[in-house]
From TrEMBL:
InterPro entries: ATPase_dyneun-rel_AAA, CbbQ/NirQ/NorQ/GpvN, P-loop_NTPase. Residues 86-224 form the ATPase dynein-related AAA domain. GO terms for molecular function: ATP binding; ATP hydrolysis activity. Pfam families: AAA_5 (PF07728). This is ATPase.
């Protein structure tokens, strides 16, 4: 993949997974002596190890990308080795996109074959389009055809990703049914077809909360194995995820490392989990739930933003005042209703909690 496509030789702000973790993928490929399905860069075992992390025989440490039940990853990876496509389902911020990118990178060495699903996704994004200048100059032919990422994946025997499948209009979704069941993409204009090469598969992601926007037809759903990505089971697991991702993001953004950030990370995660679940961690106090999702992904951005504040305007140590504004912004989405939820939580829970006085004051200062 040409990562210098910007022509300046500058570093990408967000490198593709296969570039960011190229050394791990290389070490895994070298260590991997298990059978690989056609066109796979790694065996299913090595793909799962890439996602879940581990230490290889040569001592290479593979960082965990997904923190969660091992079985989920095993089911996802083995699905890709069959003729069924994979649907990653879950509430916002449960790493659906993240997992699909890493799966494509590990299986096919390329995570860039991507269709972004929106209400305006046209059929060309799933099938093919035409380069009209060529079409007019030379008439219909394969040179004038602009393949979609799906068509390219079929021809190359690679993994294609479809983001936010349920947002795509129903008629465009229907185009996927033929592709997934026949493994063929007809081009009636040319009297030709593209047949999928072995190794082709598709990973779609969909958001629980969007369900109903364009509910999947049962015909399409039957073409998929569905894997539901859960919210982190425990606060410790969630703290672990946030700490890891914040550390990675901080390095890409050149933020100085913040060694004592863990206490504030735990606080952000605690607040998010309590508000999400509607009850305090000790189970004693019921609290109201705000309208936003308060996902792990949002906790990651609150902490990353806090670190930027601490680095540029503070003394480099993450303090309650650096996360307070971010938390408030994440919780209060609906200015009327969520403000009440937050005020009640602040007075009933934060104010009374041992060691949370600084945080309480910081929250009062930024109160809307
Ligand atoms: N269990 C987890 N393990 C590792 N990272 C996680 C986990 N849960 C969330 N994350 C992190 O959360 C961030 C957001 O994840 P991602 O964008 O993939 O969510 P999503 O499920 O696609 O959300 P949306 O429905 O909004 O598209 C990523 O940086 C990812 O690393
Ligand atoms: Mg996503």
């Amino acid at each position: 993949m040409d990562t210098q496509g910007n022509g300046t030789g500058a570093q990408a702000l967000r490198p593709h997974a296969e570039d960011a973790f190229a050394h791990e993928l290389k070490a895994l490929s070298a260590a991997d002596d298990r059978p690989r399905p056609p066109r796979w860069k790694l065996s299913p075992w090595a793909v799962a190890t890439y996602l879940l992390g581990g230490t290889l025989a040569d001592g290479t440490a593979v960082t965990p990308k997904y923190v969660g039940p091992r079985r989920i990853v095993e089911v996802a990876v083995s699905t890709l080795a069959t003729d069924r496509a994979l649907l990653l389902l879950g509430v916002p911020g449960t790493a659906k996109t993240w997992v699909s990118e890493h799966l494509a990178a590990a299986v096919s060495g390329d995570s860039t074959l991507l269709v972004q699903g929106t209400a305006g996704t046209p059929e060309e994004a799933v099938r093919y389009g035409w380069d009209y200048a060529r079409l007019l100059a030379r008439g219909p032919g394969r040179e004038a055809l602009v393949p979609s990422p799906v068509m390219r994946a079929m021809a190359e025997g690679a993994t294609v990703r479809v983001e936010e499948l349920t947002r795509i209009p129903a008629d465009v979704q229907d185009a996927l049914i033929t592709i997934l069941s026949e493994k063929t993409l007809p081009i009636p204009e040319l009297g030709q077809e593209v047949q999928a090469v072995r190794g082709f598969n598709l990973i779609a992601t969909a958001n629980d909360r969007d369900r109903g926007v364009n509910d999947l037809s049962s015909a399409l759903r039957r073409r998929f194995n569905t894997v539901v990505l859960p919210l982190p089971a425990t606060a410790d697991a969630e703290v672990d995820i946030v700490a890891r991702r914040v550390d990675q993001l901080g390095r890409t953004l050149d933020l100085p490392p913040a060694p004592d950030a863990l206490a504030e990370i735990r606080r952000v995660v605690t607040v998010f989990r309590e508000l999400r679940e509607g009850v305090t961690g000790d189970g004693r106090t019921r609290v109201k739930t705000p309208s936003g999702t308060l996902s792990t992904a949002e906790a990651i951005s609150v902490v990353t933003h806090g670190l930027a504040l601490a680095a540029h305007f503070g003394d480099g140590v993450l303090r309650p005042s650096d996360v307070a504004a971010g938390i408030l912004g994440a919780v209060v989405r609906d200015p009327a209703a969520d403000r009440v939820v937050w005020q009640e939580y602040l007075e009933a829970v934060v104010r009374e909690r041992d060691g949370w006085q600084d945080f309480y004051r910081a929250c009062r200062e930024v109160a809307p």
